[in-house]
Structures are given as C-alpha cells and as structure tokens.
Amino acid sequence: MKRLTILLILLLTLTCLLCSCASSDYKEAEALLASGDYVAARTIYENLQASRGGLVQSAGQPQPVQVNYRDCNVKIARCNYLEAEDLLAAGDFASARELYQLLEENGPYEDAAEKIFRCNYLEGEACLEKMDYLHAFALFSALGEWQDAATRTQEAAYALANQFAANENYAEALRYFAKCRGYKQADALMLQCTEPMLQNAQVGDSVFYGVYEQDGNPDNGPEPIEWVVLGKSEDKLCLFSQYILDRMKFGRSHYWEGCSLRIWLNEEFLTASFTEQERARIQPMITSLETHDTVFLLSAEEARGFYASNEARVGYLTAYVNPLNSDEPKEGPWWTRSVSTASNGKGVVIVENDGNVRSAGCAPDVPNEYSKMKVGVRPAICVSISGAVTEEPQNMNLFGFDSNTSLDREPNMWGSTGGGGGKCIVCNGTGSVRYYYGSSDLEAWLDGYDSFTVGPCTSCNGTGKGEDTQ
Predict the structure, then answer these.
(1) Is residue 6 part of a domain?
(2) Per-residue pLDDT tens for 410-429?
(3) Parent domain of 73
(4) What's this model's pTM, rounded to 2 decimal places?
(5) 3-state DSSP call for residue 285?
(6) What number is the average pLDDT over the span 42-50?
(7) Contacts within 8 Å (CB) and 24+ apart, 358-367
(8) What pLDDT is attached to residue 184?
C-alpha cells in the first residue's frame, strides 16, 4: 500500500512539473509573440501542441479527436499572419503569399485572401520594373478584374510581345499581342508581325491571323488562330483553321445558304476574331451558286481535294472546345458546307473523327443526327498578301476548285451575308426558307411539312426584313 502511495505521489509530482514546464514554455512563447519574434514563438506553440495536444482516441468515438493545448492553434495562425505581414512589408511577396495561403487552407482567416491578391499584384509590379514581363503577365492575369490588374495584364503582354517582335519571334509576339488587342498600338503591330508570315507562306505552312479563345482560360485573353495554307494563287492565300475552334449546330436548314452557322461565322466570329485592318485584307469568296462569304467552311470536294488522305484531314479540338482535354490532342468531327442527297441518308456532309468525308450526311438509322447536335467548326478564309482585295467575290477556282460543283442540287432563293437594302440575309427578303428534315419523314409530317419544304424564315419571322429595318 505504501509503495502504491509513493508511486502515485511521484506521478503527481511529475505531472505538476510537466504542467509547470508547459506553462513556462507557453509564457515564453507569449513573450516572443509580443516582441515580434514570430518564428521562435510559432516553434514553441507547435511543440506544445505536439506534446500536450494532438489526436486523442476518446471512448465511444469512432475517430480520433483533435485536442488543443490552450489556444496554441490560434496562436500558431496568429504567428503566421503577423510574419506574413512583415514579409509583405519587406517586399518578400512569394514567402508572404505562401503563409497567407497556408492560413486560407483551414478556412477564411481575417483578410488573408485579399492579401494573397495583394502579394500577386505587388510582385507583378516588381517584375514590370525588372522587365520580367513574362512573370508579370502570369501574375496579373491570375488576378482577373482585381483593381486595375486587367490593365496591368495588357501592359505586361504588350511589353512582352514587343520583346519577341524585336527578336523576330513573330509567333510568340502574336501570342501576346492577342492578349492586349486594342491596347496602344497592339492591333497595328499584330499586322506587322503577320506580314513576314504571309509574304513567305507556301502551301502547307502555318500562319497566324486573328484571334479566338482556345486554351480554355478566358481570363488570359484569346489566342492567335493558327491556319494552314491550303492554296496560294498570286496574291491570295486560302487559309484553313489548323484546329477545331468551336462546336456549333449547323442550323435547322441543311443548306449552307440558310444555316445559322453561316450567319455566326460572318457576323459574330468575323467581328470578334479580326480587327478592322485584318478584316480589310480578307477576300470575299463565292461559296455557292447564290452566295458569297468572308468566312466559310470547306465544301466536301475541297476537303477531299486539299487533303490527300484521311489522316491529314483529321481535326483536333482545342482545350476550349474540349475542357477535359488531356495532354494528348483529341480528334473531333467537323462540318463542311455541302449537302448530300445520297439515297442512304440526306443531310450535311461532315468529316468524321478519322478524317473520312461522310458523304451520306445524316445516318439513316438516327433521324436528324447532325442537325440536332454540335459539330466542330474549322473556318476558312482567303487573305490578300498585299492587302488588296477586289469588290467582286472570287471563286475557289483560284485554288483549283469550282465552288458550285460541290453542291449537288438546283439553285434556290438565298442571299449573301452582308445582304443590303434592309433585307433579311437568311431569306434574301423573301420571308421563306427551305427546311430539310433529314431522313425522318415522320418528323416532317408531324410538323406539317414534307421532307423538303419552303417554310417561314425564323430569322425575320417571315417579314423578309433585316434586323435594321424590323
């Protein structure tokens, strides 16, 4: 009994000594925190937390429970925050940001989230002063619309693009001029960078012209469009998008002249992707018996003729089109502007994933297969090398093709994009369009039409008037 009593007294004494030591350590940490020695204070708080706190398995609890020694966890966070403040004031933005981010990992802490933005901004300014424009661009673009970060992003991109242009690295220069279009002389300088590419381009070469979102990160601006030179004829280049830039529906009409995709290409895409100076160098081309366009799709005949094999014809998606894109490029089908009247399936001709030109259009066992889904868009344009374009639209026979022969049907009533005279550009002022219901005669009948029929134009609601006169 005496031995047990002595043992208990020893254990109690040891416990008191440990508590006394812990209390002494805690007081030391408090003093260090008050004096501004945050690193030493944090070390003591962390040791106390490790030795006196930690994960404890309690009776009846399925998982260990976190037990804190006094408020050590709070004091550790305070040390991190105050140290980050000192680092920020001293200009060590990277170290300060790391501590603020550590605080935010466990939930919002005071204004740590705002301070992370502040670190990026101030580090970006420092990079600008050191002419480290690439790092500055990355920092400012990550801030989005925070304060004037968008303007600073343009400033960094503009300076970086000029660096690349001075070294005659025009592809990289265009990449960053694209991020700051409309800023200072960026638009004019983009065209200057394009000049050597256009002047020296040969069939099969890649050139950059215009911009479109491709990397899936709209915050850092659009990317230059890469085109492959399909044909060259004296002063003209036939350019075809190297990648599938978007996925769109062709439209209710299966005819190029009346499809909504044609309107989108020659209005929204044309305006958003090219500056006024760039648009002035694009030659309008005859795209069917009745139409001409500034931006168009290849016909089935052209897709076969310009590319000698299915493999060469394969289209690859950008990260914007395929957000789940891995490091390996992903193939996708893409539209042509041709309509097929094959007996085993009527509809728009597409180029499939493997590059095969699917002449049958819609699959006979899947009614309206491609009219109801979004398929890849690979635009084509004809650019003047010298900058001179003719008012008269040119035919694809410049490059060895007749645009009319790829359309196996009779001409009908359609207008050209750009219209004029207040007419609807879809129906050319007639108020009617020709609908096509693919291989599903039942669907056409249920809607009150036969497979090929003239119905009211949905663009102008049957009035025949353009948007400016409605």
Answers:
(1) no
(2) 333 333 444 444 656 555 56
(3) 31-56+63-129
(4) 0.70
(5) strand
(6) 83
(7) 359/300, 361/254, 361/438, 362/438, 362/439, 363/439, 364/439, 367/437, 367/438, 367/439, 367/440, 367/442, 367/443
(8) 94
Say how many domains are in the chain. Answer: 2
Structural domain contains residue 14: no
Shared-domain flag, residues 250 and 367? yes
Angle of helix 72-90 relative to helix 38-52, nearest 10 degrees? Answer: 160
Q: Is 60 exceeded by the pLDDT of residue 370?
A: no
- Rounded Cα distance between 279 and 71, Å, is 66
Q: Are 87 and 236 contained in the same domain?
A: no
Spell out the residues 6+ positions from residue 213 whose beta carbon is closer than 8 angstroms to its own: 222, 223, 320
Among residues 95, 113, 129, the one where a domain terminates is: 129
pLDDT band with cut points at 50, 70 and 90 for residue 89? very high
Q: DSSP characters for 204-261?
A: T-EEEEEEE--SS-GGG--EEEEEEEEEEETTEEEEEESSB-EEE---SSSSGGG-HH
| In-domain check, residue 50 | yes
Is residue 261 assigned to a domain? yes
Domain ends where: 368, 385, 411? 411
54: closest CA among 40, 44, 68, 41? 68
